[in-house]
Amino acid sequence: EVQLVESGGGLVKPGGSLRLSCAASGFTFSNAWMNWVRQAPGKGLEWVGRIKSKTDGGTTDFPAPVKGRFTISRDDSKNTLYLQMNSLKTEDTAVYYCTTGRWSDSWGQGALVTVSS
Amino acid sequence: DIVMTQSPDSLAVSLGERATINCKSSQSVLYSSNNNNYLAWYQQKPGQPPKLLIYWASTRESGVPDRFSGSGSGTDFTLTISSLQAEDVAVYYCHQYYSTPYTFGQGTKLEIK
């Protein structure tokens, strides 16, 4: 069974940084493309970025609102995905989900990130 | 960026009746070389993460009841629930994974009439 467990969420001041982790199990993590998707309180879903598997180049892609501020990395030896968030803004407040595969077939329970002074 | 627009924003359907949700993309998500539509549907219940229902526009995810079906091609897609059950009350999202930035529709809230 696929399991994704996010951690590292919390309260951070505007301009601050935070790193989320996603521990994966139940599938071959090294072969998987992985995404981060967020959901602001009471709002819809927003794709935050993706990392390909190393065999597919290991490259990352981001949407304009987070490009240059967020980075995604992976440690295939630890089956763990990371989201490094810098220069955080109040509008980054959301639940952040890690998801598997090109079409996000499995989702974690999410980690709440609150950006507030 | 590909903009995904769902209609309606909310929908109330009687138990046992058909529910239909539409999704339109601002450009085609059909990849001609493999004839696949890069379109997925998700169901999200309150306090839960989204759950994948459909991918490739019409392929039902394992374990999803067969009352859920997806159709459409190119820019116009539909999620149909053939006979609404109480447990289907949720928000439904379409999602294109044809090109980055991947994008989602704004969501359709489905309720019981």
Characterization of the model:
The complex is a heterodimer of chains A (117) and B (113). With 117 residues, chain A is an all-beta fold. Chain A has strands at 3-7, 10-12, 18-25, 34-39, 45-51, 60-61, 70-75, 80-85, 94-100, 111-115. Chain A is globular. Chain B is mainly beta and 113 residues long. Chain B has no helices and 13 strands. Chain B has strands at residues 4-7, 10-13, 19-25, 30-31, 36-37, 39-44, 51-55, 59-60, 68-73, 76-81, 90-96, 103-104, 108-112. In chain B, the strands form 3 sheets. In chain B, strands 2, 6, 7, 8, 11, 12 and 13 form a 7-stranded mixed sheet that branches. A 4-stranded antiparallel sheet of chain B has the order 1-3-10-9, with no helix packed on it. In chain B, strands 4-5 form a two-stranded antiparallel ribbon. The termini of chain B are far apart.
Largest interface: A-B, 20 and 22 residues
The number of distinct helices of chain A, counting runs of at least 4 residues, comes to 0
Average pLDDT of chain B, rounded to a whole number, is 98
Form type of chain B: globular
Main sheet makeup of chain A:
6 strands, mixed
How helix-rich are the residues of chain A, as a percent range? Answer: under 10%
Gyration radius over CA of chain A: 13 Å
* End-to-end distance of chain B: 36 Å
Short description:
By secondary structure, chain A is mostly beta strands.
Main traits of this protein?
heterodimer, A: 117 residues, mainly beta, six-stranded mixed beta sheet, four-stranded antiparallel beta sheet, 10 strands, globular, B: 113 residues, seven-stranded mixed beta sheet, 0% helix
